[in-house]
Amino acid sequence: MLKKEMICIVCPNSCRLSVWEEEGRIRVEGASCARGMAHGRNEFTHPVRMLTSTVRLEGARHRRLAVISSQEIPKEKIREALAALEGVTVSAPVRKGDIIVRNISGSGADIVASRTIPAAE
Amino acid sequence: MKKLDMDIAVIGAGPAGLAAALKARELGAEKVLILERDTEAGGILQQCIHDGFGLHRFGKRMAGTEYAQVFIDALEKTDITLLTDTMVLEITAQRTIYACSRQEGMMEIRCGAIILAMGCRERTAGQIQLMGYRPAGILTAGSVQRYINLEGYLPGSRAVILGSGDIGLIMARRMSLEGIKVEGVYEVMPHPGGLTRNIVQCLHDFDILLHLSSGVVKVHGKKRLEGVTVARLDENRTPIPGTEEYIECDLLVLAVGLIPENELSIGCGIEMDPKTKGPLLDEEFMTSVPGIFACGNVAVVFDLVDYVSDSAETAARGAVRFLWEGILEPLQYVKTVPSGNINLIVPQRIRRGGEKTVSFYLRVKKPDKKVVLEVQEKDRVRESRRFAFVAPPEMIAFKAAASGSGDVILDMKEGSHA
Ligand code: SF4
C-alpha cells in the first residue's frame, strides 16, 4: 500500500500527515484535529485549491482588480480557470464580493472581487 | 502651520493602524486620527491578493485584500479621521506629531496618546552582499508583488528567488501562475524562512525546489540581469568550491527579511530592542516614552495578520487607558527573560505589581519537536504548554497570567511525553 506523506496546511500547526488506502478506506495518521483528517483525505482523493488572481480593471486608479474564488476548486482546473480570467475586464466601481465570473470553468465556484475599488474621480 | 488636538493619533493605516484606531474609538476615545502616507488605507494588504488571512480572527481563509476591506468598511461607519497622502516627519516625546500633506500643508498635532503602526519594510540588495553589477531585474519580493498584483506588469520571464521568507514563497506561486518560470528558491540558512504551509502550497504544488544552505554568489549582466551563479554554502556561509552553478534568468527576487520601520520611534528617543528591532514594549504595548504605544510589524515582525490586529487592539486599550488615567508615578518594570530555545519575546517587560493577563508573542531559535513551554515567575510555574512542533518562522502567541512581582522567565525545553 502506498503511503502519501504530506504536511497539513489548514492551520499553522503544520501537522505531518500520512495518508493511505486500506481495504477501500482512506486512513489518515498524524492529524491533531478533525479538519486535518478531512484535509488529508481530500488531498488524497481530490485535491482542491483556492484561486486568487487579478483581472483587468478600467475606470479606476488601479489597473488590476484582485479576485478570489468563492470556494476551493479542483486543483486540475486551476490553469483552465486562470486562462478564462485572462480575457475578463471589469469597470470600476467594484464592491468586495461582486461576482466577476459565475461558475468558473464549470467548477461550481464563482470568482468574486476581493476588495472594493471606487471609480476614479 | 495648521494645529490640531487629538485624543489618539495612529501612524499608519495598514492592518495594525486600522485595528488600533477602530478599537480606540470603540473604547470611547473621541477624536481619533489616522495618518497614512499612501493614497489609500490597507497598507501592504492591498497587494496581498492571496488567501490565508483571518483564520484565527474570522474563522475563514480570506484574501489579504478582503481582510483589509473588513476594517476599511468598518472605518467608514465611524467618525475617525483618515488623512492619506500624509507624511509624518517627527514625533516628540511630549506627544506632538509634525506631519505634512499637499492638501493640509504642515500640521502640528497634539495628542493625548500616539499609536505607532508604521509596519516594516523589506531588506534590499544594498543590505546583502551581491557580487557583480547592479543590472535591472533585481527586485524585492514585495516590489514584484506590487508590479504584478496592483500595477499589472510582469517584471521578468525567468526568475530565481533568493531567500525563503513568506513573501518570496507567495511570489513563487504567483509568478508561476502568471507564466514566469521560477528556477528555484535559494536560502542561505539551513532551515526555511517562511511558514510551512507556504512551502507546501507555493513550492511543492509547482514543483519548485527549495535549496537550503545555498545562495547567489554572483549576478551577471550589465544593463539587464542575464543570470546568477548559485552555490552551496558551508556553516560560515562561505561558498563551497566546485558547487557553483550558472542559472540563466532575467529576474532575481529578494525575499531576505523584513525590518520594522522605526526611524520616527528612534527620532523620538524611544528605547529599542536589538532583537525585535522594534521598541521595547510592556504588556500594554507601551514604549519607553509614556503615552506612545506601538503595534503590528513596527513592534515586531509578525507572520499572521491576525496577531497584528490583536497587538493593535492591545495597544489601543493601553492608549485609551493612558488617555483617561494617565500615569501618576514613574512605572517600574520586571523583565521577560527568554530561556532555552526561546529567541525573542514581546512584550519585553511587564509593569510591576498587580495580577494581569499578558499576551505573549515569541519566536524560537531553531526547529524542534515535542517541547514544553513554561512561564516561570519567582520559581513558580504559572503556565505550561506543550507543542508538537516549533520553528522560527512560526510565531507562538498565547496568554498567561503574571503578577509583576519578579522577572518572568519563558523557558522551552524537551517534553518527555508531549
Ligand atoms: S491537523 Fe489540525 S491542528 Fe494539525 S495542522 Fe491540520 S488543521 Fe492544524
Describe this structure in words.
- The complex is a heterodimer of chains A (121) and B (418).
- Chain A has 121 residues and is of the alpha+beta class.
- Chain A contains 2 helices and 10 strands, in the order βββαββββαβββ.
- Chain A has helices at residues 34-45, 78-86, and strands spanning 4-7, 16-22, 25-29, 48-49, 52-58, 64-69, 73-74, 89-91, 99-101, 111-113.
- In chain A, strands 8-5-6-10-9 form a 5-stranded mixed sheet.
- The longest helix of chain A is centred in the first third of the chain and has 12 residues, at 34-45.
- The radius of gyration of chain A is 18 Å and the shape is elongated.
- The mean pLDDT of chain A is 93.
- Chain B has 418 residues and is an alpha/beta fold.
- Chain B has 3 domains: 1-122 and 258-330, FAD/NAD(P)-binding domain (3-Layer(bba) Sandwich), CATH 3.50.50; 124-256, FAD/NAD(P)-binding domain, CATH 3.50.50.60; 332-418, Immunoglobulin-like (Sandwich), CATH 2.60.40.
- Helices cover 21% and strands 37% of the residues of chain B.
- Chain B has helices at 15-26, 55-58, 64-76, 141-151, 166-177, 196-203, 263-267, 305-325; strands spanning 2-11, 32-35, 51-53, 62-63, 81-83, 86-91, 96-101, 105-116, 120-122, 138-140, 158-162, 181-186, 210-211, 214-220, 227-232, 245-248, 251-254, 258-260, 272-273, 278-279, 292-294, 333-340, 342-346, 349-351, 356-364, 368-377, 380-390, 396-402, 408-414.
- Chain B is globular, with a radius of gyration of 22 Å.
- Chains A and B meet through strand 5 and strand 6 of A and strand 4, helix 3, helix 4 and helix 6 of B.
- The complex binds iron/sulfur cluster.
- The site of iron/sulfur cluster (SF4) has 12 residues of chain A, from helix 1.
Could you write a compact summary of the structure shown?
The complex is a heterodimer of chains A (about 120) and B (about 425). With about 120 residues, chain A is α+β, with helices and mostly antiparallel strands.
